[in-house]
Design the sequence.
């Protein structure tokens, strides 16, 4: 029984570490995403409120693409949850979100309109979530520690 508990604790620890890593990757990609918004969608004549709306609108578009709802809808459905919908996301959802942010930045830089971007992003999200459902982290090849191993 002790071995079983230890194994479950080890497994949960690994899953938590993976979740935290993907959450941090998502945060880094968010910067790439916001830079693309700033450089392409934020016009000098916009008021601060309009600028804030533009950023929020893009973030909510990704929420709708991935989760099927915007942040307010999620919060209304989960009033007792601490944090936001991204904090409640699964490991796979966080990985896909990081990819969506990066891809949306590319699409913004290509001057794609929001409707086009949303369609392309949705196709990517569905494809990646489907792929990730069939992959186990335990079956992936391990990375070697250290870059200069001889």
Sequence:
């Amino acid at each position: 029984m002790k071995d079983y508990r230890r194994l479950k604790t080890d497994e949960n620890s690994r899953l938590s570490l993976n979740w935290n890593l993907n959450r941090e990757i998502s945060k880094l990609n968010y910067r790439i995403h916001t830079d693309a918004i700033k450089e392409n969608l934020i016009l000098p004549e916009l008021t601060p409120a309009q600028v804030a709306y533009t950023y929020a609108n893009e973030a909510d578009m990704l929420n709708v693409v991935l989760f099927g709802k915007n942040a307010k809808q999620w919060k209304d459905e989960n009033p007792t949850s601490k944090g936001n919908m991204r904090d409640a996301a699964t490991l796979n959802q966080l990985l896909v979100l990081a990819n969506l942010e990066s891809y949306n930045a590319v699409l913004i830089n290509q001057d794609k309109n929001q409707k086009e971007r949303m369609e392309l992003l949705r196709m990517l999200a569905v494809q990646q979530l489907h792929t990730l459902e069939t992959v186990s982290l335990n079956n992936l090849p391990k990375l070697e520690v250290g870059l200069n191993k001889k």
Notes: Residues 128 and 134 are 10 Å apart (CA to CA). The chain has one domain: 1-134. The chain has a mean pLDDT of 85.
